[in-house]
Amino acid sequence: MIGLTSLRIGGQTLMPPKVNRQGALFVLTKIEEILTWEARIERERDTKFVELGRYLCEVRDMLFSIRGAELHAVAFTKDALRLVQPAAVSR
C-alpha cells in the first residue's frame, strides 16, 4: 500500500487508486484459508503434545514399577544372604 499515505501532491488531490474487487476478494479469501489452516495445525500440535505427555507418564510409571520390583528383589536377596551367611561362616 505504498503511496496511499499521501493522496495530495502540491495541494492537488490525486484520484484514489482503482481497486480490483475480485482480486481483493481472492487475496482476502486466501489469507483467511491460511489463518484457518494455521489454527487447525496449532490445535493438532497441542493435541499431539498432550498425547506425548500421557505416553511419557506411562513410561515413567512403568520404569518406577520395574525399578521398585528390582529394589524389592535386591532387598529380598540381601535378606536371604544375611540368613545364609552365618551358616556358611560357621563351617
What is the fold's blueprint, element by element?
Layout: E1 8-9, E2 12-13, H1 21-89
Antiparallel strand pairs: 1-2
Detailed description of the structure:
β1 and β2 form a beta hairpin. This protein has one domain. It starts with 7 loop residues before the first strand and ends with a helix. The radius of gyration is 37 Å and the shape is rod-shaped. It contains 1 helix and 2 strands, in the order ββα. The chain is mainly alpha-helical and 91 residues long. The mean pLDDT is 76. A two-stranded antiparallel ribbon has the order 1-2.
A few lines on this structure:
The protein has 91 residues and is mainly α.
| Structural class by helix and strand composition | mainly alpha
Question: How large is the share of residues in beta strands?
Answer: under 5%
> What's the domain count?
1
**Rg to the nearest angstrom?**
37 Å
Percent helix, as a range, is over 70%
What is the count of helical runs? 1
Question: What kind of sheet is the major sheet?
Answer: 2 strands, antiparallel
Q: Output the strand order for the largest sheet.
A: 1-2
The averaged pLDDT comes out at: 76
Distance between the termini: 100 Å
